Amino acid sequence: MKAKNIIFLFAGCLFSQVCLAQTELKSDLKAFRPAESNQPGKLFPQVNDEGKVRVSLYAPQAAKVQLDLGGKKYEMTKNEEGLWTGESAPQDEGFHYYQLNVDGASIPDPNSRYFYGAGRLGSGIEVPAYDEAFYALQKVPHGMVSENIYYSNLTQTWRRCFIYTPASYYENKNSRFPVLYLQHGSFEDETGWVNQGKANLILDNLIAQNKAKPMIIVTDNGYALKPEATEAPEKGQGISIFEDVLIKEVIPMIDKRFRTLADREHKAIAGLSMGANQTMRIVMKNPDKFAYYGGFSGTSNYPNTDVIDPDVFMEGKFKSGTELNKKLKLLWLGLGTKEPAPFPKSVGAFRAMLDKQGVRYTYYESPKTAHEWLTWRRSLQNFAPLLFR
Amino acid sequence: MKAKNIIFLFAGCLFSQVCLAQTELKSDLKAFRPAESNQPGKLFPQVNDEGKVRVSLYAPQAAKVQLDLGGKKYEMTKNEEGLWTGESAPQDEGFHYYQLNVDGASIPDPNSRYFYGAGRLGSGIEVPAYDEAFYALQKVPHGMVSENIYYSNLTQTWRRCFIYTPASYYENKNSRFPVLYLQHGSFEDETGWVNQGKANLILDNLIAQNKAKPMIIVTDNGYALKPEATEAPEKGQGISIFEDVLIKEVIPMIDKRFRTLADREHKAIAGLSMGANQTMRIVMKNPDKFAYYGGFSGTSNYPNTDVIDPDVFMEGKFKSGTELNKKLKLLWLGLGTKEPAPFPKSVGAFRAMLDKQGVRYTYYESPKTAHEWLTWRRSLQNFAPLLFR
């Protein structure tokens, strides 16, 4: 046997019937292209220029198959080979969760990658956006994303955070970096900001263009519950101690493991939706720890839309605009123009309070996006360049 | 509004019908327990002490639902609420890929986590093993696993590797570490050794017990193809250049980004199945680069089971046992006792050749496991302690 290059079978189509059927549909690829969110080598799901999503599933004995996307169920149709295909109405640009329904079973699409949202790992579809270059994988220096498992003494559970380190972290092995703590929304987890949010690629691109300072980003899990006390099991259940976990456990761990700049001038905190609410409370209660705040699609008066009384709201933390302006170097808010109730009015009420109190802040609106990941990718894109200046 | 701890809705059961039905089955939890490989909070799939796997799927209109596991399809049955449940025969200890079939559709189980194998992201089930402590998440110092994206000029594609760094990498920020390059098998990818193999936890545990030296582990993607030449598109297709990518691109990148000990005495290479075959070729062709080799369930004569002629095999690289024994500090082979053909005979023929040539090697057999991840976890557990001594 001669030592030579070997032709290895390449991972791909294992189930030949499906492959044959998919090949027949290839002719349509001009209009519909495989989504960026697909598993390697998968031709479906596809997206066209209008943002319509087309899915396929081989299910020869099924009576009814549907595409469940954006709150609507689209009927799919079967060909002679048993391959079902279906198409959605045009979708907003950006990332959306979806699932398939097969004879009443809600299932992940076998062809998509899976993302943690809506409280489970499920399918996602990437609809190309006009400005997608800012979160695309570009030929620029890339940082790394590290998974860090830790035991929390406060929650008495194993927890996990992810740490983005920029490319320059590995260039000069003595340099130190500022840190942005960045939180996900409800029913999502610590994987969201990288998997759906593409925070690493957004920063790689911003840093390569000299638009943002090289920084570390930490994404932790916003669900951190007080352990059930043995004497009174009902007491602990459901009480969030995320703030304590972040301040007392995560930040010291990050400052120990990474070459950080650990003072408040080099520490920022931001979050989306539930994470915006959580991190606003954290920054207001810990002004010695953070100098920068970002709230993406959420404020701490959520879900309230009433006029805010600054004497009462958050124990009067917003009473003195002058004092707040001195302390916080950045108070940044973002929202999508298509967000549903109560977000526009709730964030609106918060902004009205800031205006009345003379609190300096930056407000950004993401065009034509709802309470979804493209709003938050764009928020990060606009927020990160203002940090650590 | 008073600033106080807020009770957040916790991610979990979103689809109430399924949850109700799952609760009814809770009474059986004594015998069947939720698998370690489940998504957070999911009660199914379950495993019992015999290694039987029980799955459930809510599919009220389906006519036929099956559990497809270990090459067999098990019929599932439906209750009045439309919840299907089914049970497998006892399975071998360790990790197995599986899927569900709903009216002819092969789908991932919505309750399991997903693992890249068989050329796609699919469901996996963890059947507890008598020795599972060695790969369990224990209260010991934990290293990190970092995702590294890079552009390969050789393949002209984006590629990815993962890097495990031990806990002590972050203790002394000037210390340098030896590196093990560790490869997956066919139809798997660079995520396999962490997600299915639990290589990070195995090393965390070994290092904490002082059984293995702290080391860096790098897992790359074994599929690296020559780009199709524009003059002759058919020429490049399917020709593996993984060896070149590893030697010329990955190793220099790792030595640049991480604090490695870059000489051959501190570099090991190992792989499983296809990866064993690939890495054996790499170590034999690059004796200046590696001093340690591990082949888990595979040798470079695969799939051949004939007597090996050392004058011809791999260009005579095994002709002189004396020379090889001087060069290689470790030649390590592992195999499961239940591996199917051609592995036992193929590895057997290779060992017979080594014996005949007087090549020193270590041989390990994993009890009662086939060509599966528990064989490879145990191989790593037994191989890693012998490295860098």
Automatic annotation (TrEMBL), chains A, B:
SUPFAM superfamilies in the cross-refs: alpha/beta-Hydrolases, E set domains
Q: Signal: present as a keyword of the record? A: yes
Q: Which CDD domains match?
A: E_set_Esterase_N (cd02858)
Keywords assigned by UniProt, alphabetized:
Signal
Signal peptide from the UniProt entry: 1-21
What's a single GO MF annotation on this record? Answer: acyltransferase activity, transferring groups other than amino-acyl groups
Per the UniProt record, one Pfam family is Esterase
Q: Does the keyword Signal apply?
A: yes
The name on file for this protein is Esterase
